Inverse folding.
């Protein structure tokens, strides 16, 4: 149901973007251009084949914005909101699919959870839109209407971790402006935490002892990855004349932090990604692959999955019998889910990278970056997206779709397919290492 819902939204978005009214100049967009843009929007990725502010009309921009918002809410969450508005209740099927999408642990208060998702999204987007509108008016002399549109579009795009911008250079013109970069970064971080974490922090922000294991893993994992990414990117790019080199040191730190935030699956860029060192790309590959928190607008295999694997590794090194995290024992079923999701994700990334290597002449580091960016729904690019052959661009469409739905639906399916075992087979140990 979730996959069909996303596919239907992409199909509708493709049809709308193919209309002549959506494209600047005579005629309409091609099927591939419209499909790629619609998929990137609904899957909140941000990869583009055409220059968003130049190629699409105001109507096209509105369609893209609507697709981003729907995709960020989640198709089933959005459908549930419509159902609540129309018939004032949710069917059992709607509650089950919405619960799977927002990672609810039960069906008792799915309605409240869904409405909470909507309220949080709209409040954060409204606050960020106001801050950006004010800066575009005061700092850059934009008219109120233009500033408001820029503020709304970029607030929705940032909170939903989409990475679409209304500037041809993304946000490179504002690399040293904290009043643009920091609100957008804050919205991206909040969206990347995941709605269950945001809701719990709203209730127990000052009582960390009441936080669930999921909230603690996401919060601490986010802090470590953001700081580690900032130090890594800033250090490697500090003297790079194509990125941070020409900036003063406060701007370098701001740009390094902003770029680290983007690797959490947002996709804006305030420096030229194509000009970065290959070592920076490799580090960003890992950050993009990990992604953000579950049941939010971020992609990747999720911070919790990575954290679970880390604690499993730590437990094996110590020789302990059980995996304990923050004073709680981790369920063995979660071990298997985390390992399965990561190994399948690695397999998808590797297969797609090999495919692109066979049909293009681009370097491995560029193709790997592009593949992980699509799969993790990040949207950052080394500038080769439009240069890929149609088969390669369709591969990215597939990766965006699978990356947005794969970890969510597959992990849920594993959890729901658990069945009691009535007997156990004898144990035997192969040689490891």
């Amino acid at each position: 149901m979730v996959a069909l819902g996303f596919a239907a939204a992409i199909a509708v978005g493709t049809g709308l973007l193919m209309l002549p009214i959506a494209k600047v100049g005579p005629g309409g967009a091609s099927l591939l251009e419209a499909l790629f843009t619609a998929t990137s929007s609904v899957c909140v990725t941000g990869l583009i084949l055409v220059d968003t502010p130049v190629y699409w009309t105001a109507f096209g921009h509105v369609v893209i914005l609507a697709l981003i918002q729907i995709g960020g809410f989640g198709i089933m969450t959005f459908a549930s909101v419509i159902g609540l508005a129309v018939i004032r209740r949710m069917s059992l099927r709607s509650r089950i699919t919405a619960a799977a999408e927002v990672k609810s642990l039960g069906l008792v208060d799915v309605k409240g959870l869904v409405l909470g998702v909507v309220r949080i999204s709209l409040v954060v987007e409204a606050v960020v839109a106001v801050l950006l509108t004010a800066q575009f008016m005061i700092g850059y002399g934009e008219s109120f209407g233009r500033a408001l549109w820029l503020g709304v579009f970029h607030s929705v795009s940032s909170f939903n971790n989409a990475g679409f911008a209304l500037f041809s250079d993304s946000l490179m013109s504002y690399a040293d402006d904290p009043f643009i970069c920091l609100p957008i970064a804050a919205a991206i971080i909040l969206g990347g935490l995941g709605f269950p974490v945001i809701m719990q922090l709203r209730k127990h922000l000052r009582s960390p002892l009441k936080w669930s294991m999921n909230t603690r893993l996401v919060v601490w994992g986010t802090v470590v990855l953001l700081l580690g990414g900032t130090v890594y990117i800033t250090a490697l790019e500090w003297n790079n004349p194509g990125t941070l080199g020409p900036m003063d040191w406060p701007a370098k730190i701001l740009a390094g932090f902003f770029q680290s935030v983007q690797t959490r699956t947002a996709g804006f860029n305030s420096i030229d990604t194509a000009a970065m060192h290959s070592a920076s790309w490799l580090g960003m590959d890992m950050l993009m692959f990990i992604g953000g928190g579950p049941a939010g607008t971020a992609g990747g295999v999720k911070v919790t999955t990575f954290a679970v694997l880390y604690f499993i590794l730590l437990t094996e090194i110590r020789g302990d019998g059980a995996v304990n995290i923050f004073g709680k024992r981790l369920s063995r079923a979660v071990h298997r889910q985390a390992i399965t999701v990561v190994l399948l994700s690695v397999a998808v990334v590797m297969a797609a990278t090999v495919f692109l290597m066979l049909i293009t002449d681009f370097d491995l580091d560029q193709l790997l970056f592009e593949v992980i960016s699509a799969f993790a729904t990040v949207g950052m690019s080394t500038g080769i997206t439009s240069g890929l052959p149609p088969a390669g661009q369709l591969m990215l469409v597939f990766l965006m779709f699978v990356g947005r739905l794969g970890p969510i639906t597959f992990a849920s399916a594993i959890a729901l397919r658990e069945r009691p075992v009535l007997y156990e087979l004898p144990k035997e140990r192969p040689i490891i290492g």
The two ends are 42 Å apart (CA to CA).
